[in-house]
Automatic annotation (TrEMBL):
Molecular function terms from GO: sigma factor antagonist activity
Protein name per its UniProtKB record: FecR family protein
Pfam families: FecR, FecR_C
Domain Protein FecR C-terminal: 255-320
Membrane spanning residue stretches: 93-109
PANTHER family xrefs: PERIPLASMIC SIGNAL SENSOR AND SIGMA FACTOR ACTIVATOR FECR-RELATED (PTHR30273), PROTEIN FECR (PTHR30273:SF2)
Lineage of source species: Bacteria, Pseudomonadati, Bacteroidota, Chitinophagia, Chitinophagales
UniProt entry keywords in alphabetical sequence: Membrane, Transmembrane, Transmembrane helix
Domain FecR protein: 119-208
Length: 323
């Protein structure tokens, strides 16, 4: 679904809010991405000529909770006399004003209190207003306040994985909010991954504080250390990684295995290629791989593994079986 189609879904609904089919399409579209609700709410306000909310008053979380009520109670819109011409012009306006494409990453610059960036099957990078750089993995959604770099330096990761190279500013701590977890730094380089099970934070340089929101439970991370924080959890597990690890392989596009055990290799392949890797013969777990793969196709990597480790590997669709 492209951005023109996305905007058309909202406009068709606003033209005929009583249409159950349009309401269903709108609801499905909103559920696809956290940023879609913001687009809908802002467009609805502008459609009806309502004043836009002030940044401090815009409650996205509350809007999510009230979504069903919003969809059920939007009043009918008066149709203009020259409906066909006006609607065509309106659709062109929304498509141009509400969504901007940047190198495969879409960014919403609507009148809400923050900007939302999302990637599909691509990766992208963005220089933030304070001079910091944010690298986004595929299928990642982040947002930051319009006053970023002046009033605060807060970023929210709704889903996915991002690496931050942070410009030092003692007066404005750099804060990353992920589900249930808050990460705070002054100047450093670190990676945050928000997955279904929880949040992982890995530090490349500097120091990072990772904490459960609303609690005193936190940990200070130094270079090479990764913290795992579970959703609705209380414990923070930490792990020290050796220099050659694959946590940032999605960014460097390079997999490095330094006498890595096969189960560790399997985990890295799953993250890097978005596949499921099963080791059907556990006697193979002790085998170790010494290899470097620089942005190579999965089948080429598997072929080298087969010959190097003298093992059998089958790859079909999204499943890799080692036996």
């Amino acid at each position: 679904m492209n951005n023109q189609t996305d905007i058309d879904i909202v406009i068709r609904y606003l033209e005929d809010p009583g249409n159950e089919q349009l309401k269903k399409q709108l609801n499905e579209w909103i559920q696809q991405d956290a940023g879609n609700l913001d687009i809908f709410l802002d467009m609805k306000d502008m459609w009806h000529g309502d004043p836009l909310p002030a940044a401090s008053a815009f409650d996205t979380h509350g809007q999510w909770q009230e979504l069903n009520a919003v969809l059920d109670n939007v009043p009918a819109v008066k149709k203009p006399a020259e409906k066909g011409r006006v609607i065509k012009m309106a659709r062109k306006y929304w498509a141009a004003a509400a969504v901007l494409l940047i190198g495969g990453t879409w960014a919403y610059f609507g009148p809400g209190s923050y900007k939302t960036f999302a990637t599909a099957q691509n990766q992208d990078s963005l220089r933030l207003p304070d001079g910091s750089t944010m690298y986004l993995n595929a299928h990642t959604t982040v947002r930051y306040a319009r006053g970023f770099g002046k009033e605060n330096r807060q970023i929210k990761i709704d889903k996915g994985e991002a690496f931050f190279d942070v410009t030092k500013n003692d007066a404005l701590p750099f804060i990353v909010n992920a589900p249930d977890v808050e990460v705070q730094v002054l100047g450093t380089a670190f990676n945050v991954k928000a997955a279904n099970a929880g949040v992982k934070v890995f530090v490349q340089s500097g120091k990072v504080s990772a904490a459960y929101k609303g609690t005193e439970k936190k940990v200070i991370l130094t270079p090479g250390v990764e913290a795992s924080l579970k959703h609705n959890g209380t414990n923070i597990d930490t792990r020290v990684h050796k220099k050659n690890n694959n946590i940032l392989a999605w960014k460097t596009r390079t997999l490095i295995f330094d006498e890595a055990q096969l189960n560790e290799v399997a985990d890295a392949l799953e993250d890097f290629y978005s596949v499921q890797v099963k080791i059907n013969n556990q006697q193979l777990s002790d085998k170790k791989l010494l290899a470097t793969f620089r942005n190579m196709p999965l089948d080429e990597v598997l072929d080298i593994m087969k010959k190097t480790l003298q093992i059998n590997i089958a790859h079909k669709n999204d499943l890799v079986e080692i036996y």
